[in-house]
Amino acid sequence: MSALTALEQALEHRWEALWARLLDKEPVELLDALREECDSNAVVCGEGRKMAPNVYAVELHHCVHDELARRGSRVGQVLTDSLARHGERQGYMWPGPLTVHVTRSPHVPNGRYRVASAVMSHVSADGLPDPGRA
Predict the structure, then answer these.
(1) I want to staple 27 with a disulfide (CB 3.0 to 4.6 A). Which of 19, 84, 114, 125 is the partner?
(2) End-to-end CA distance of the chain, in Å?
């Protein structure tokens, strides 16, 4: 195992521990929800080409979101990286830059989340429109 692989695994374990502590559950549940959203909205576009949505919105209860922000966590980037690895394993193509935007929501119960996706050719993580309503 290379040093880079060992470092990546160590960071993933720390990320999982943070989520488990904050949400009292494994972060795998949120990652699985993102992967399922990706898989269920992927379409075959010709010979072996699979296109998946490239914009994902994750809504967290404001307490969880604030705690992550207070700790300086780059949740959106970590989730984007994880989803990119999933897409690579599945052979997905993205119609534009892949991004996972994490927002706070008073409508999501504490410890839960909501995931939505959309296809957008031009996107920036700043000022991201709500893909659930796109």
Answers:
(1) 19
(2) 43
Phi, psi of 52 (to 5 degrees): -120, 155
* Residue carrying the six token digits 């990286």: 81
- Cβ(94)–Cβ(80) below 8 Å: no
Q: Closest Cα partner for 15 from 59, 77, 100?
A: 77
pLDDT, one tens digit per residue, over 62-112 is 887 777 777 666 778 888 988 999 999 999 999 999 999 988 888 888 778
Tens-place pLDDT, residues 19-54: 555 554 445 678 889 999 999 999 998 888 899 999
Q: Where are the beta strands (DSSP E) in the chain?
A: 43-44, 50-51, 55-61, 92-93, 99-105, 113-118
* Burial grade of 7 (CB within 10 A; 0-12, 13-18, 19 or more): exposed
**pTM recorded for the entire structure:** 0.69
CA–CA gap between residue 44 and residue 51 (Å, rounded): 6
Cβ proximity of 87 and 52 under 8 Å: yes
Q: Which two tokens stand for residue 30?
A: 């949120």
